[in-house]
Amino acid sequence: MQEPTLSSALVLFAHPDDxxxxxxGTVAKWTRDGCEVHYVVCTDGSAGSNExxxxxxxxxxxxxxxxxxxxxxxxxxxxxxxxxTDGLLEVTPA
Length: 94
Known about the structure:
alpha/beta
């Protein structure tokens, strides 16, 4: 049975690089098959470094550049950052 072809998809995730770890292969297949994929990244990725002495202000723009580059490789149409501080995002009714 042939699977239906998606015309568009939104991938919502917390941290830069989460999409590639969780569903990068699927995203690559979707874009290869003509699906228009868009990313929404909830946090700024500022806590995403183990480098001694790294500070959040320096890490966030690096993580954004890395995420955009990865999305380009996979053929993602757009990447939107919501800019929540990494590590402080909570699920709340608000």
